[in-house]
Amino acid sequence: MYFLNKDLVFPPVSAASPEGVVAAGGDLRPDRLLLAYRSGIFPWFEDGSPILWWSPDPRMVLFPEELKIRKSMRQFMRNTTWKVTRNKAFRQVIRECALIKRPGQAGTWITAEMIEAYTHLHEMGYAQSVEVWEEDELIGGLYGIDLGHVFCGESMFARKSNASKLGFVKLVETLRDENYALIDCQVYTEHLASLGAREIDREEFMQILNND
């Protein structure tokens, strides 16, 4: 296990454990977080535990042109009165992502420390949010890190059915129009697979990430 110190450096992702752990320790200061994402690495840990830095192989990604929207969802999108915005309520979105209960998880990896760190990145223009509103109520959303050609998705939440999916679809459509290479979804979920995301080798992911 590689343990980080105050120096701003990560080992190569090829040194990751079979589970995908690259390193442990360090901190969540902005320059370290940005270096991590630009290096194909992201933090994921429980409150009270050391920071763990991950680069899984394979990597779950969505190429924007491969987005799948089911017929029922297209009909819903045509008829809904919900509004989708971007970067209007970042702190509220990340807090909601921390609060939402998820199957098989007793708690959240979005600690108070992470909320402050990513809010700082948002203020710097790197962390982005998508919000879904029913009138003035925030009912869904997501956030992630924008690297300019790759969007690194972190978490999403929904208070009503289809809310997070609507926000995600709208984001992907925007990124497709802006010629983004891919959306990093990190690890496999059936929900993401149903939207067209798929696993690729870490080596292929790194080639795309470094081709900016």
UniProtKB/TrEMBL annotation:
GO CC terms of this entry: cytoplasm
Q: Name one GO molecular function term.
A: leucyl-tRNA--protein transferase activity
Repeat keyword on record: no
- NCBIfam families reported for this sequence: aat
Q: Where in the cell is it found?
A: Cytoplasm
Arranged from A to Z, the UniProt key words for this protein are: Acyltransferase, Cytoplasm, Transferase
Name it: Leucyl/phenylalanyl-tRNA--protein transferase
What is a single Pfam family found in this protein's UniProt entry? Answer: Leu_Phe_trans
Q: Gene3D superfamilies, from UniProt?
A: Leucyl/phenylalanyl-tRNA-protein transferase, C-terminal domain, Leucyl/phenylalanyl-tRNA-protein transferase, N-terminal domain
| Family designation | Belongs to the L/F-transferase family.
Q: What is its EC number?
A: 2.3.2.6
Transmembrane portions of the chain: none
What reaction is this protein's catalytic activity? Answer: N-terminal L-lysyl-[protein] + L-leucyl-tRNA(Leu) = N-terminal L-leucyl-L-lysyl-[protein] + tRNA(Leu) + H(+); L-phenylalanyl-tRNA(Phe) + an N-terminal L-alpha-aminoacyl-[protein] = an N-terminal L-phenylalanyl-L-alpha-aminoacyl-[protein] + tRNA(Phe); N-terminal L-arginyl-[protein] + L-leucyl-tRNA(Leu) = N-terminal L-leucyl-L-arginyl-[protein] + tRNA(Leu) + H(+)
Q: Name one GO biological process term.
A: protein catabolic process
Give a yes or no for keyword Acyltransferase in this entry: yes
**Known function:** Functions in the N-end rule pathway of protein degradation where it conjugates Leu, Phe and, less efficiently, Met from aminoacyl-tRNAs to the N-termini of proteins containing an N-terminal arginine or lysine.
